[in-house]
Amino acid sequence: MQFHSNGFHPGDPRIHNPQDRVIAPPIKRPLPSHCDVMIVGCGPAGLNLAAQLSQFRDIHTVITDLKDDRLTVGQADGMACRTLEMFQAYGFAEQVIQEAYGVNEVAFWKPDPSNLSHISRSSKIEDVEEDLSEMPHVIINQARIHDHFLNVMKHSAAQTEPYYSRKLVDLTVDHANEEYPITLTFERAVTHSQFNREVETVRCKYAIGCDGARSQVRKSIGHELIGDALNQAWGVMDILAVTDFPDIRLKTAIQSTNEGNVLIIPREGGYMVRIYIELDKLKEDQRVDRENMTVDVLIKAANRIMAPYTLDVKEVPWWSVYEIGQRLTTAFDDSRDGQYPHVFLAGDACHTHSPKAGQGLNTSVMDTWNLGWKLAHVLIRRAPKRLLSTYSAERADIANQLIDFDREWSKMFSSKPKTEDNPDGVDPTEFQKYFELFARFTAGVGIQYKPSIVVGDCRYQHLATGQPIGQRFHSAPVIRHGDAKPVHLGHCHTANGAWRVYAFSGDAPPGSGTCGIQALAEFLANDRTSPVVRYTPDAADIDSLIDFRAVYQTPHRELERHLLHPFLTPAKGALGLRDYEKVFCVDYSAGNNIYSMRGIDVTEGCIVVVRPDQYVAKVLPLSKHKQLSEFFDGCLA
Questions:
Q1: Which conformational region is residue 75 in: left (phi greater than 0), alpha (psi within -120 to 50 degrees), or beta?
Q2: How far is 307 from 388, CA to CA, in rounded Å?
Q3: Strand bridging mode 78-79 / 138-139
Q4: 63, 176, 220, 390: least buried by Cβ within 10 Å?
Q5: What burial letters (b/e) apply to 32-51, b meaning 16+ CB within 10 Å?
Q6: Residue from 13, 266, 355, 417 carrying the catalytic annotation
Q7: Annotated catalytic residue within 276, 309, 391, 615
Q8: What number of other Cβ atoms are within 10 A of residue 562's Cβ?
Q9: Is the dihedral of CA 189, 193, 197, 202 positive or negative?
């Protein structure tokens, strides 16, 4: 899609008249006196959590924000492949891809050896390696992602909408109160800087601080951000400009000899560009002089760095300046002395870092993607409270890895390039290699959770070598048997809080006495020790908690439905209609065989258990029914 050619206008570009893009805020209303979950902060972490919990009609979720309305412009823009996989679970990934800028290549520029005051291109590389994900790396205004989350919330089972203009002033926890242990006190805002005397008090079961680096929730539970700063200032601006720089529509890293460095991020619409500009070094404990900083300073700096090319800026929809620093909270929740947590931190409230690696929003939404299903399981009594302790254990480890990566990446990006006059500088070639080395991490697919009650051991990993336990389920093409439609298997995952159990057939004929899927389906459907039988609520659909699906090696035109176990065509809904979308076959078109792509054992087959947040929890042989039940016994209730 192309838009912004006549100037920047926020909102949905599919709507021609910019005035019609404006969405009225929710009707102002008082906060409820009680709720199940209170989310403080309408950033990406908070909205993602609210969107997940809104899928559950019986969970009363409230989300508040200091602002008086939704975000419309600025802030984050890079959406990693893994984040798009999560958007697919909500059903809006395709809309984002259509509207966004797709990052295909990265260009690297360094000082021109023949004239060190100028720059020249050193190389171009692919941004994302082949088959890293079925989803692309894209660039889009963070506000548009907020719009999609808000739309999911509003039209969900719980019909959740934010309460704006609320300032949290206090949060206390009474662990002796088992029903509503948390009390939050809010002041209702008149403007960002003024508050009237109207005080609202809400009691809840769980609270989540998604309220940024200056989090009041974090302060209330006695935690702080600790870490260091690199004493480096950067500016960022979204611009509509005319330029002779040839790679203005490519993601581009530029290192100049003496003028600093620039990162160019093309934006959605075909015309707008975001530019990160290195500013002066700061002294210890020095902050950016925001009062004397203007957008003209940034534009002039960009032109100096990009010489001999020029940048004629026509419009600046948004700009800002910031200091780079890496900080991590002292804890991700309020658990102490063996008590289970009731208050959690997510996003910038528990980790801050530079924006140039594109990990701020992406890491923040993955925090609450990890937490949301766990909260839901506990609140609707599908799991014991100890499940909540895995949030801090899993996400604190990932945040530490991110901080270490960002510290080195920012240091390299802010360093002068290596030249004859600066032999201690960063070799542009090494800078590119570092980018390539950590491509899986920046794409969000390199995360691997450690063994716990929701991540099993690797004893049978050899049966599915391309689905590492603890990493996200790596989707691949299959043919859906019922309608012969080519689909991605991973797109079975929706944001409904259900586990997926995939059975991959071995070499036994479908429906035969030796067919492992047939025996597994019989066990899951009818055995009293089956986790489906034990844990599915009485009035719920049979796949509401554990969604069982099968993949056969038999070509889809040769597989007859009458050979399959009835459990693979379950009756669902008020009318008892049959679900014909549980069975898949290998796509034998060139390069699409899921068995070879994901290292599935063609002789033995296997079971792959996938968590509600799309991470592989367990790999088992088809015959290990007892071990499958034991795994779910350890994390469900």
A1: left
A2: 53
A3: antiparallel
A4: 176
A5: eeebbbbbbbbbbbbbbbbb
A6: 355
A7: 276
A8: 5
A9: positive
Position 171 pLDDT exceeds 50? yes
Instruction: Give me the residue label for tokens 């570009």.
Output: 13
| Helix and strand totals (H; E) in the chain | 14, 26
Token digits for 427? 């070799």
How far apart are the C-alpha atoms of 219 and 318, rounded to whole Å?
30
Distances (CA, A) of 453 to 201, 224, 363, 459, 634: 36, 29, 23, 15, 6
| Catalytic-role residue among 36, 65, 77, 601 | 77
Under 8 Å between Cβ of 240 and 314: yes
pTM of the model: 0.94
pLDDT tens-digit series, residues 71-110:
988 678 899 999 999 999 999 999 999 999 999 999 999 9
Report which of 42, 36, 35 is spatially closest to residue 347, judged by C-alpha positions.
42
32 included as an active-site residue: no
pLDDT of residue 282: 46
Per the annotation, the verdict on 459 as an active-site residue is no
pLDDT tens, 443-477?
A: 889 899 999 999 999 999 999 999 999 999 999 99
Q: Is 289 labeled as catalytic in the residue annotation?
A: no
Q: Which of 195, 180, 185 lies closest to 220 in space, CA to CA?
A: 185
Does the active-site annotation cover 615? no
Distance separating alpha carbons of residues 512 and 505, to the nearest angstrom: 12
CB burial readout 323-342, b (16+ within 10 A) else e? bbbbbbbebbbbbeeeeebb
Q: Which of 233, 229, 196 lies closest to 213 in space, CA to CA?
A: 229
Contact predicate 139/268, CB 8 Å: yes
pLDDT of residue 419: 73
pLDDT for the residue numbered 344: 98
